[in-house]
From TrEMBL:
Keyword annotations: Membrane, Transmembrane, Transmembrane helix
Membrane spanning residue stretches: 308-333
One matching Pfam family: PilM_2
InterPro entries: ATPase_NBD, PilM
Classification lineage: Bacteria, Candidatus Woeseibacteriota
Organism whose genome encodes this protein: Candidatus Woesebacteria bacterium GWC1_42_13
UniProt protein name: SHS2 domain-containing protein
């Protein structure tokens, strides 16, 4: 499931960067670069997840960030990248074939590694595949720190992936040199296919031009036509040295995001590129996400529970407010009515027309207030009714409840056609639901059916036509995992 909004985090040995873009991903709203205390990350591996989570919590508090979903960039040195070529087979069988062939170059057993891949090109006979892998223990350190901070990681990438995205989709060979925070990353790529990357330590940064020439020579099968540089430490002299060593013109990496101070743009290239990415899960063959599918589902479930509790809390406050208003109005109007009645009895005169009109107005207002309290329905009633007939093979990932009109819409994925039919039958058997509709196109596939359901919640619809309305819509929410 793709989410439009998330906060990007980028980790190095000594720094943590945070970037939050607007919903259109064109302008930066908040950003920060934080020095990490010693002893949190050692040799690109998190050794103190609890301490790192405290740092992340402090950043969220200081930046006043409300978004809990995050994407993470892990250090390049801890990953393994490899291009593969495989015969054209069915997409459903491609994942197994990629993982089988990847065992030839992975340094550890498949049980100790996490890996994802994407198709970066194809010919009539072959798929060109880019694979990315990392030791599960190393990845878990970063993910656990983020999760312990109360956040929900749904996307994990490396600097080479984000930088190659910034260099554009030109299918020609290219070299990317990125220098930031004392470290340099060298990347050789051919279009979207990354052939290799190298991390130059701070003590070797003086020889970056020579190392750039060496890595181009090593991948001599690639005709490097374009050279890109980026990072806060990519000075003009730096660019001239690399251009001279490679005898090629040098281009500066750029981002389409606005709002950074001019001297900060290069510093945040990696984190900004991640923030612009789509948060598609690891099962998609067009993107790479190192976070395993099982981990994604776990964190999506936690995020959903958090949203439901928040929704219930808000509903409780609204109900309590209605009761307070109703009670106050009732006692106030009752007191006013008693005063008027006493005055009438004392004077023993006929009731003036204006007084009669006022009493009728008071009674009408009281009836409206009581009607408001009667018409209110909590979203949890509807959610519970739907979940009570939902088979385990069906997942709800998006919903919209309009309790003013009783209109309910939700969407998700059904493992099989039979499970979706069973779900529809269960909804039809509930007398509280009517006008249940699922598009025929949702039943075209045999497995992993993406469906949409629209229906009417009868109790809310009946009251909507005879009682005053109050705002109680539940906004569209991408909440995978129900």
């Amino acid at each position: 499931m793709q989410r439009k909004s998330f906060v990007a985090l980028s980790f190095t040995r000594q720094k943590l960067q945070v970037v939050k873009l607007n919903s259109g991903k064109t302008h930066v709203e908040k950003f920060a670069s934080i020095d990490l205390p010693q002893g949190l990350i050692s040799d690109f591996e998190v050794v103190n997840p609890q301490g790192l989570s405290v740092v992340i919590k402090n950043v969220w508090r200081e930046l006043h960030l409300n978004e809990k979903t995050v994407g993470v960039v892990v250090p390049e040195f801890s990953s393994f990248v490899k291009p593969l070529e495989l015969p054209k087979i069915d997409i459903a069988e491609l994942d197994e074939a990629v993982r089988w062939q990847a065992q030839e170059f992975l340094p550890s057993g498949s049980s100790e590694m996490v890996m994802d891949w994407k198709i970066v090109g194809e010919t009539p006979e072959k798929y060109h595949i880019l694979t990315l892998a990392m030791k599960k223990a190393i990845l878990a350190g970063y993910v656990d720190a983020v999760s312990t901070a109360g956040l929900f990681p749904l996307l994990v990438k490396t600097p080479s992936l984000t930088l190659n995205t910034l260099s554009g989709k030109d299918p020609s060979g290219k070299l990317i040199v990125y220098s930031n925070f004392g470290e340099t990353i060298l990347i050789v790529a051919h279009g979207e296919k990354i052939l290799g990357s190298s991390v130059v330590s701070p003590e070797d940064n003086a020889d970056v031009a020579q190392r750039a020439a060496a890595i181009v020579k090593h991948y001599r099968e690639v005709d490097v036509k374009r050279v890109f540089i980026g990072g806060a430490e990519a000075t003009q002299a730096y660019a001239l040295a690399i251009g001279k060593a490679l005898a090629k013109p040098v281009e500066v990496l750029k981002t389409s995001v606005h709002g950074f101070p001019p001297d900060q743009i290069q510093k945040y290239l990696v984190t900004t590129s991640l923030a612009q990415a789509s948060s598609v899960g690891p099962s998609d063959e067009t993107t790479i996400n190192l976070l395993p599918s099982s981990w994604v589902k776990r964190y999506e479930g936690k995020r959903l529970k958090s949203q439901i509790w928040g929704l219930l809390f808000l509903s409780t406050l609204i109900i309590l407010g209605c009761l307070i208003v109703t009670g106050g109005a009732y006692f106030y109007l009752g007191g006013e009515a008693s005063k008027i009645s006493a005055q009438i009895e004392a004077k023993n005169t006929s009731v003036p027309p204006e007084l009669t009109s006022k009493i009728e107005e008071v009674n009408t207002t009281s009836a409206k207030v009581l009607a408001i309290s009667e018409v209110f329905k909590t979203p949890q009633e509807v959610i519970n009714a739907i979940l009570s007939v939902k088979p385990d093979e069906v997942t709800i990932v998006e919903y919209k409840l309009d309790l003013d009109t009783g209109k309910i819409n939700f969407a998700g994925i059904a493992a099989t056609r039979e499970s979706l039919v069973k779900f529809k039958s269960g909804l039809e058997e509930n007398p509280d639901f009517s006008a249940i509709s699922i598009p025929i196109s949702s039943f075209e596939k045999d497995i992993d059916l993406e469906y949409e359901v629209s229906l009417i919640f009868v109790p809310a619809a009946k009251k909507a036509g005879s009682t005053p309305r109050i705002p109680q819509n539940v906004k569209d929410t991408n909440t995978p995992g129900i």
